[in-house]
Amino acid sequence: MVSDTSSPTGAAPASAATLWLAGLTAGLLTGIGEVLYHVWRTQTRTSDGLGAHVVWMAPVSNLLWFLPLAGLLVLLRRRIPLPVAIGLLAGLLTLCLLYLRPRLYDLTAVLIATGVGVQAARLTRSRTAGVARGVRRLAPALLGLVVLAGGVVAVREWRAERRAVAALPAAAGTTNVLLLVLDTVRAMELSVYGFERPTTPGMEKWAREGVVFERAFSTSPWTLPGHASLFTGRWAHELSARWDRPLDATTPTLAEALRDRGYLTGGFIANLLYVSRDWGLGRGFAHYEDHPFTPGEFVVSSSLGRKLTGIKGLRRLLDNHEMSGRKSAGDLHRNLLAWLDRKPEGRPFFAFLNYYDAHQPYLPEAAWDAKFATGTQPRAHNYHYYLHEVGYDNRHKFTPEEFAREREAYQATLGYVDHQIDSLFTALQARGILDQTLVIITSDHGEHFGEFGLKGHGNSLYTQLTHVPLLVRYPAALPAGARVAQPVSLRDVPAMVLQLTGAPAGTLPGRSLLRFFGPAPDTTPEPVLMSVERENGDFYRAIAHGRDHLVEMTKGGGFFDLYADPLETADRSADSTLAGRRAELVHLLDSLLPVPPRKGKGAR
User: Fold this and answer.
1) Of 37, 95, 465, 472, which residue is most buried, by most CB within 10 angstroms?
2) Do 175 and 137 sit in the same domain of this protein?
3) Which residues contact 313 (CB under 8 A, 6 or more apart)?
4) 140 and 227 share a domain?
């Protein structure tokens, strides 16, 4: 190599190939380090919700940061010696790995990364020839390893699905099942439940051909336990599902029960945070579409990508406020219909769809935004995202006008989802499938828009978060236009599904909702339980029984009349004439759902 006196050290500059290979090596090493961290978290029964394809997506994602740096170093290679270049790459590698722990202060991470970079430059100063040889050998090996890992995951998933389908027994029924879960949708915001704005005209039309449960309750006010109860028939407090723990394999699921009866099972997921396969909800599904292969998903597959997409100023600068990789209702429906069109003829199916359009940030399409907007303030998407940003910042106090804007955007997303579901039903009807399908529309939880001074979800057991839609249509067995007024729990949905598909009674716990129909309907009030274990260790619990709703929380709570006061604006706890009834519910709640010993924050 010819000496180049333009280099600050007087040493010959590194070749472009060496620098490109060094960048490739550093990026792949970073991604592999992140994969090992992901595997470690999975083995310790926690989950980061990144999916199995992270084994190749994380290394590829990190190349988005390291290859541009390598390209810059190539341009400046006559000014920057190889040891300095290695130091810069080592520093970026360290920074990315440190960002795997998001609570680490940025300044601390930068200082540590700088120190590692300086030491890497010092250690390689007299070993430049060895470094060049090393990256020439290591880069192809690491690239081959990543390609192999990606191939293994893809082949394993493909083979697992084929084996699952091949292993299906002869179908024990003919009734298809379609379960639609509208993430973060509260019943009180839907026109099919009496809301004054036309948020769900499609559901109103289809509800006239089925049953509306007017007071259906989720078992928990947030996603994972709400879905877990809907899948297992168990109360939230009976399950392993927690903020940092997936649903374990000790409890059978509805998908497993239907699979064992010969059903082809498929899941189509938009909530990648808590409904992906990593969180235990994919058990029993032969086909499960969660993480998409999109540019946004690649970006957030690396720790630095997740860090950058969380910078508010950068979001505003790029005018990009959407969640990376979020699927729309239209995306889910296209995937579902493609799956149905290629399924084996004559095989009944169980399809589960999880929608995420009505989750923060509320970013409705322009046409729907305009339809539900009021007032004169511009309806810019970045305004919605601003509210999303401060929504989890307790220092910001929302004004009534801000909450009103959020609700309008929320209603627009509901209108869009309703329109898409109406189109889906029309497509199923055209295929001759709809009337042979048990269709269930529900939600995992609702949302607060300032009620009780709260915003978001997971933070109370009031009806704003626990009262969810439940619409069921199956002309072969259910009456048209019926409405059930009594409180019911979503944990009873699996028992209803299994009864309608001919499964033996008791396959999963819960009482079938078919008890309300037939020649001798059973309208005896059943206790409906709700609970949530907060991240700080607080445990909230509630019970609905008859027309009464008792809510016990560390701060707040009350005793409400679900029929006369559905928004729970009047706490009757101090009403002496109701003291006996309240004491009765407290005793019932204590017997069914005692408060567990406090574990403390982070003591799970």
Assistant:
1) 465
2) no
3) none
4) no
CATH number, domain with residue 541: 3.40.720.10
SS3 for 46? coil
Same domain, 138 and 192: no
Provide the domain count of the chain: 2
Please identify, among 156, 177, 205, the residue that sits at the C-terminal boundary of a domain: 156
Q: End-to-end distance of the chain based on CA atoms, in angstroms?
A: 59
Tokens of 209: 């051909």
Q: Which residues contact 221 (CB under 8 A, 6 or more apart)?
A: 445, 446, 457, 458, 459, 460, 461, 465, 466, 530, 532
Strands (E), 335-481: 349-355, 437-442, 448-449, 455-456, 467-468, 470-473
Residue 112 burial class via C-beta count within 10 angstroms: exposed 0-12, middle 13-18, buried 19 and up: middle
* pTM strictly above 0.85: yes
Q: What is the pLDDT of residues 44-72, one digit of tens each?
A: 767 777 888 999 999 999 999 999 999 99
CB-CB contact of 212 with 234 (8 Å):
no
Nearest to 491 by CA among 241, 293, 263: 241
Contact 462, 562 (CB under 8 A): no
Residues contacting 188, CB < 8 A, separation 6+: 195, 446, 463, 464, 467, 566, 567
